[in-house]
Amino acid sequence: MLAAHTVADVRRAEQGLADDTGWDVLMQRAARGLADILDDRLPPGATPVVLVGPGHNGGDALFAAAHLGERGRRVNLCLLDPDRVHGPGLAAALAAGASVVDSPRGHTHLVDAVFGIGARPGLEGPAAEWARWQREEDPWTLAVDVPSGVDVDGGTLPGEHLLADVTVTFGTLKPALLLGPAADAAGDVVLVDIGLGPHLATPAVETFTPDDGPPAGHRMTGDGPEHKYSRGVLGVAAGSEAYAGAAHLVVAGAQAGPAGMIRFAGSAELGRRVVDRAPEVVAGPGRVQAWVVGPGGDDGTAELVRAALTEQVPVLLDATALQSLPDRFDVPALLTPHAGELARMLGVSRDDVDDDPWGHARAAASRWGATVLLKGRRTLVVPPEGPTRANRSGTRWLATAGTGDVLAGLAGAWLAAGLTPLEAGSVAAHLHGAAGVRANPGGPVTASGVAAAVPAVTADFLAGDLHRVRDW
Ligand SMILES: NC(=O)C1=CN([C@@H]2O[C@H](COP(=O)(O)OP(=O)(O)OC[C@H]3O[C@@H](n4cnc5c(N)ncnc54)[C@H](O)[C@@H]3O)[C@@H](O)[C@H]2O)[C@@H](O)CC1
Ligand SMILES: Nc1ncnc2c1ncn2[C@@H]1O[C@H](COP(=O)(O)OP(=O)(O)O)[C@@H](O)[C@H]1O
Ligand SMILES: [K+]
């Protein structure tokens, strides 16, 4: 797992480490890591300009500039406020040959060390002018710790900010590097270990990494006897006269998951059509370990939600079912809205959700006592309490009709197999995104094609060997 911590937790961890090592050691580790990455990423002979702010973020970059100078590279410095700058850092950079310049204009390579975790979101004055210059001249940019001006804890972009191709962050990731619109401002994220690990609290956000193996708790790797019921039975109540395809796609997603059996609940006619295409499915009533209700539903969905909830098993509610929520859930529940559906649930606008996806997903998780999987370019899975999972797999080609239905079926199958809503939602989102890439790397996909790619991607994931998970 890759982890992100809030500013307050980072500050506490830094203090804990500094109590052992002294503050200088932290900054020197950060600066050396930064210099090594800059050395690696800057073209030979390129002269970067470093935008230097008043705090330790600027200090990190000034010591890194000193390392680069000692290694023979020219570095230019632009100071936000010459009266407020990290003194020892500036002295070291100048001693190593760096020069102070008045303006970043004309530079093709930029290092953003204006503000780090001490930042108030939104840039003003000369820093805002730097942001406008950056948009105009579009230099390659490396951000130090975070892109300056973003909301580090919330991942929103409330004002002027800088953009990065690469962000080099220290000790642990920050939420803004993994979620919300801010994550798109951060580019590739590279973590420099400064030894914070033992001092860090529970993360605010986590994400799967390629060597994360099978999640604990699913019924496939239990010690007891394995048979179809021990793997869990998933009930699917999806599709309608108008949206028959949703029934097929939810079933296709579910069949790509670990559940032992799928029961289809719906009209006799739709049930026949589902079984014609997927003869493994049983149409008709019976016991299940989890329900998926809602994709492609009609007026009857509210009753299906009510019926599923009386069975006291975990439920996944999607699409139409999101309009028939109980006041609070008394069973484990996974809600899978896209931004428009979440906006409707909360009585806000879609733009509100797009501007602050994490805040709104957290509000819904706490309002309903459910885990909220908010779909989008960066899908989030937010439990009522504890770390959020930010999904990093996928491709923009997944934004096509029916892929959400496949995801609902897949997540439902993991729920039926015994995972918690958080684990089921985040495993399914990870596999679904990776399957979107594998279905047709770099090009368009269909929802059915994504479902077909899931089983092989799942095998790699279970082996801790799923590497190519995204196309962006
Ligand atoms: N605490 C430490 O010793 C370490 C900190 N590190 C670096 O230090 C950074 C944090 O340093 P600081 O706490 O000095 O804070 P920053 O360097 O992020 O910000 C410095 C100051 O700028 C001002 N400021 C912030 N946002 C502003 C805005 N939007 N407009 C105008 N002024 C604004 C504030 O007064 C703030 O305290 C980290 O991001 C990281 O880069 C690393 O060197 C590792 C060790
Ligand atoms: N811009 C995007 N980049 C990557 N994935 C996306 C993007 N937009 C949507 N997705 C993914 O595509 C799927 C669409 O689901 P949904 O909106 O429910 O569509 P549908 O209802 O047609 O199935 C989700 O898994 C979502 O995370
Ligand atoms: K920065």
From TrEMBL:
Which domain of life does this protein belong to? Bacteria
Residues bound to AMP: 375-379, 404
Keywords on this record? ATP-binding, Isomerase, Lyase, Metal-binding, Multifunctional enzyme, NAD, NADP, Nucleotide-binding, Potassium
User: Which cofactor is essential here?
Assistant: Mg(2+); K(+)
SUPFAM superfamilies linked = Ribokinase-like, YjeF N-terminal domain-like
UniProt-annotated binding residues for K(+): 57, 112, 148
The record's InterPro entries line, in alphabetical order, gives:
CARKD, Nnr, Ribokinase-like, YjeF_N_dom, YjeF_N_dom_sf
What does the Swiss-Prot or TrEMBL cofactor note state? Binds 1 potassium ion per subunit.
- What reaction is this protein's catalytic activity? (6R)-NADHX = (6S)-NADHX; (6R)-NADPHX = (6S)-NADPHX; (6S)-NADHX + ADP = AMP + phosphate + NADH + H(+); (6S)-NADPHX + ADP = AMP + phosphate + NADPH + H(+)
> Where does the YjeF C-terminal domain start and stop, copy by copy?
209-461
**What EC number(s) does the entry state?**
4.2.1.136, 5.1.99.6
User: Which CDD domains does the annotation name?
Assistant: YXKO-related (cd01171)
Biological process (GO), any one: metabolite repair
Ranges for domain YjeF N-terminal:
10-202
* Job description of the protein: Catalyzes the dehydration of the S-form of NAD(P)HX at the expense of ADP, which is converted to AMP. Together with NAD(P)HX epimerase, which catalyzes the epimerization of the S- and R-forms, the enzyme allows the repair of both epimers of NAD(P)HX, a damaged form of NAD(P)H that is a result of enzymatic or heat-dependent hydration.
- UniProt record similarity statement: In the C-terminal section; belongs to the NnrD/CARKD family.
PANTHER family tied to this protein: ATP-DEPENDENT (S)-NAD(P)H-HYDRATE DEHYDRATASE, ATP-DEPENDENT (S)-NAD(P)H-HYDRATE DEHYDRATASE FAMILY MEMBER
Q: What is this protein called?
A: Bifunctional NAD(P)H-hydrate repair enzyme
Gene source species? Aeromicrobium marinum DSM 15272
List the taxonomic lineage.
Bacteria, Bacillati, Actinomycetota, Actinomycetes, Propionibacteriales
The primary gene name is nnrE
